[in-house]
Amino acid sequence: MIWWNRDVKNDHFKTEQIIKSYGLMAPKRYTYSNLKKITNSFKEKVGQGGFGTVYKGKLPDGRIVAVKILSASKGNGEEFINEVASISRTSHVNIVYLLGFCYERSKRALIYEFMHNGSLDRFIGDKGSPITNCQLDSKTMFQITIGIARGLEYLHRGCNTRILHFDIKPHNILLDKDLHPKISDFGLAKLCKTKESIVSMTGMRGTAGYIAPEVFNRYFGGVSHKSDVYSYGMLVLEMVGARKKFDSGLSQTSETYFPHGIYKKLEQGETFVTLENITDEEEDIIKKMIIVSLWCTQTCPSDRPSMSKAIEMLEGSLRSLQVPPNPVMHSPVRSPQDSSTTEDSSTISQS
After folding, report:
1. Domain end among 113, 143, 169
2. What is the distance between the alpha carbons of residues 235 and 317, in angstroms, rounded to a whole number?
3. Are 165 and 186 in contact (CB under 8 A)?
4. Phi then psi dihedrals of residue 292, to 5 deg
5. Residue 95 and residue 126 in one domain
6. Model-wide pTM > 0.85
7. pLDDT at residue number 276
8. Residues 208, 263: one domain?
9. In sequence order, which residues have a C-beta less than 8 Å from that of residue 80 and are 6 or more positions away?
10. Considering the domain boundaries, does residue 88 fall inside one?
11. Are 282 and 275 in contact (CB under 8 A)?
């Protein structure tokens, strides 16, 4: 269920109504001139995303913040309403905290807590972070993986209104000074009734390489919270380098975006670990992350775990995990109606 329509004529009015509906719980509202003071006239740019540019700023009380100025091209304001309406309903250690916003006709901005280590994508490239010149060790990757999962579990089950993010990817995972992850960028999010499983959605939303099959083709099943689970699985595979190792040298075809080749490597006992001097315990952690990710990226949504189940699998022992069936060998034969499952109706077999 979407909480607003896309009538451009009523956009300003509806945005104001949504903001007023929060009453005393609404985040603080700032003027555009306030933002110029906070950012020293937008002096320090720290990021660029699909929905806007992010600048570093400082509030009068001394707190360092990130100010995201939304792109003028997003004229309908839907992404702005999405972020304010979605994130204002959240309160979780693994969800970025919204401190305030600005809404003056075409001037729209969001003020977040500042994340000192930027986004996760800076740490999972070939050379790690360009600032720290280091890659994440396996235990840190595992803690980040668990943190993201807990954030998604909260969005899917912990809120009064279920929130589907629809754009889980490394760029939208921010890391604080202690490398604790926080989910950000709710511009594509969708709010729905808590008991809803399958949601209606027109068009496609997300980022190539992370979009669940059912989001771009309903033949694979209905769109639900399991679509976020798929994106999460692809993100974790990228974190551990499994996708990169498989993708290298391939053309940008659909095969690049699905982890079919990883199954063969698991069967043959090949390693995905590129870190030096890694212990057996650390290698087991990486393998566990890969197996759970493969469950999360099953083609059929009902074959994927809920985020609660994924956390349980990650925190359990490696010996209890089974490698899921290879989706390329098990093409979906179910209709979208068959995929209308409830929260924890995954068909995962765990010993």
Report:
1. 113
2. 22
3. yes
4. -65, -40
5. no
6. no
7. 62
8. yes
9. 15, 70, 74, 101, 103, 108, 110
10. yes
11. yes
Residue 210's pLDDT is 93
202's tokens: 């027109």
Q: DSSP for 46-57?
A: EEEETTEEEEEE
Of 113, 146, 175, which one is at a domain's C-terminal end?
A: 113
Cα separation, 298 vs 229, whole angstroms: 10
Buried b (16+ CB within 10 A) or exposed e, 51-87: bbbbbbbebeeeeebbbbbbbeeeeebbbbbbbbbbb
Is 277 a residue whose pLDDT tops 50?
yes
CA dist 210 → 195, 199, 213, 220, 231 (Å): 25, 19, 9, 15, 5
Q: Which domain holds residue 87?
A: 8-113
Tell me the C-alpha to C-alpha distance, in Å, between residue 100 and each of 25, 26, 66, 263. Answer: 11, 8, 10, 45
Helix axes 307-315, 138-153, angle to 10 degrees: 150
Give catalytic residue positions.
Answer: 167
Look at residue 349 and tell me if it is in a domain. no
Chain CA centroid to CA 183, Å:
6
The domain spanning residue 251 has which CATH number? 1.10.510.10
Q: Cβ distance 102 to 109 under 8 Å?
A: yes
In the block, tokens 């001037």 appear at 107
| CB-CB contact of 193 with 1 (8 Å) | yes
**Residue 198 DSSP code:** S
Tell which residue, 207, 225, 214, 54, has the closest CA to residue 155. Answer: 225
Give the number of other Cβ atoms within 10 Å of residue 139's Cβ.
Answer: 12
- Reported as a single tens digit per residue, the pLDDT across 280-318 is 888 889 999 999 999 999 999 999 999 999 999 999 999
State mean pLDDT over 90-95: 93
* Count of all residues that appear for the chain in the document: 351
106 sits in which H/E element: none
Which residue(s) pair with 173 in the sheet? 183
